[in-house]
Amino acid sequence: MSKMASMLRCSLNKQWARPFFTIWTGQLFSLVGSALVQFALVWWLTQKTNSATILATATMVAMLPEIVLGPFAGALVDRWNRKRVMVIADGAIALTTLGLVLLFASGQIAVWHIYVAMFLRSLGGAFHWPAMQASTSLMVPAQHLARIAGINQAVRGAIAIVAPPLGALLLDVLPMAGILAIDVVTALIAIAPLLFVAIPQPSRSDAEQVVTPRLVLRDVVEGVRYVRAWPGLFGLLLLAVLLNFFFAPASALMPLLVKQYFGLGALEYGYAEAAIGIGVVVGGGLLGVWGGFRRRIVTSLMGLSLMGVGVLVVAAAPAHLFWMALVGWAILGIMNPITNGPIQAIMQARVAPEMQGRVFMLVGSICGAMMPLSMLIAGPLSEVLGIRAWYWAAGVATFAMAGIAFLSPTIMHLEDAPASDGAYAMDHAPVVAK
Length: 434
Fold this sequence. Notes:
The protein is mostly helical and 434 residues long. The chain has two domains: 1-200, Growth Hormone, Chain: A, CATH 1.20.1250; 209-417, MFS general substrate transporter like domains (Growth Hormone, Chain: A), CATH 1.20.1250.20. It is 81% helix and 1% strand. It has helices at 3-13, 17-49, 52-79, 82-106, 111-139, 145-173, 176-194, 213-228, 231-252, 254-261, 266-290, 296-316, 322-350, 356-385, 387-407, 409-412, and strands at 200-202, 431-433. Helix 2 (17-49) runs antiparallel to helix 3 and helix 2 packs parallel to helix 6 (145-173). Mean pLDDT is 83; it is low at 1-5 and 419-433.
């Protein structure tokens, strides 16, 4: 970041808490509304179709925008006004949900309507998330980014715990249209602060160019080059990809492990999910208060090592000691934000502001693509070797990844040099408030 940009960021951050948390609070309402919608739609599909294929298709439809279109959305976020992107994304998601409200209220709803709505809502999120993350990096002082990441993880963990029972309660007292209408209201609450709070915007010398598909593709390629030419960031991306490859199946196979290996039922599966969710809240809260070690990468790799411990405890638990597996899942939940929060903070602090949309969505897209790929491998492998085999593999691989990262100078010194010290140098443009 240039000296001018750094000075302006400092001036914008002198009283950063009030504007940031004003926007953050609005987004919190929107997250709750979205979680209720997600629960209600999945339950409706389950109740009406009783089809695993339908649910799997819905999951894939919701993932497609991030995996396929994410890098292009990130490129546009870097080029457009980020406040405007968030307002339009929230508004589009609200309009999509309003369409569902009208369809449910009129009795004309069909499964394909749900697919379309999930795709459009996910597409809105593919624009909103990088815009919010990139804005956070310029609104929050660098020394507080890990704390904010921890708070965000804790809040998301709490919502994941509260939303299902709250959604179930609302389904008993409200029609589907009424529950979906809550999301429309919470989206409007999220939009309102954005209209009045100034959000820093990195200026670009080519910002006035007419946006064409060729220009967007060039921006995406530029983002790939940026990551590839910065060895520490590229190494971190590989670490995240491998982590998602091993942990996505471990999460998906959890109900089968509870049922087939431990010989238990839905209640115990609920305990396992709760152990992870409560762990995420505890870990996020801990990171929010503590902030981590001075070197954030050390905090993250320590968390990664202990995530390996958690998975191995689950893998080693005898069939008659389910409580031991619960301890492992709780450790896994606690260490999740302690691993991911500092990495997010590093990227927000070190990636050039005008590149953050592309970089965030490139990482998200590649990591998201690991889920279907890993499931294609983990499913048949678990059928042959048993479900616990994947947990053993995930635990050992996590330890190996943490060890390699600790021994890698490029990853360990990721925070010591700006991105512009890499092979792909950029002149960082000034930051302006809009």
